[in-house]
Write a structure and sequence with these properties.
Layout (H helix, E strand, L loop, with lengths): L15 H11 L4 E2 H8 L3 H13 L3 E8 L2 E8 L1 H20 L7
Antiparallel strand pairs: 1-3, 2-3
Helix pairs in contact: 1-4
InterPro entries: WH-like_DNA-bd_sf (IPR036388), WH_DNA-bd_dom (IPR027395), WH_DNA-bd_sf (IPR036390)
Keywords: DNA-binding
GO molecular function, one term: DNA binding
């Protein structure tokens, strides 16, 4: 019989890339697209795809502004997204803490 996952585990954040994105976004208020892309070492298209998934599920919001003719995209974690991220991290900690360890010899 498989143990039930701990409460707070967010299956969307089981993907390491989305977890890394939310980790960055949870540490800042707003984040520039280029900074986030460089922080998580993704291409523009790969980051855009992950952001679409996170936005569709309510984890993030995006704003697009123009500086002259140049678009600037800013991203932030929503309150719900931040709460879900922190709950996910806590659930992972619980899993690790409950894992039996061999006794030191």
């Amino acid at each position: 019989m498989t143990a039930a996952p701990p409460p707070g585990l967010d299956r969307l954040l089981s993907d390491p890339t989305r977890l890394a994105i939310m980790s960055v976004l949870s540490a800042v208020d707003w984040c520039d697209f280029a900074f986030l892309r460089d922080s998580v070492s993704l291409s523009d298209s790969a980051l855009s795809k992950q952001l679409t998934t996170l936005r569709t599920n309510g984890h993030i919001e995006q704003q697009r502004k123009y500086l002259g003719r140049v678009p600037k995209t800013s991203i932030r974690a929503t309150e719900d997204g931040r709460r879900r991220f922190l709950g996910h991290v806590e659930a992972l900690r619980d899993i690790v803490e409950r894992t039996p360890r061999p006794h030191d010899s």
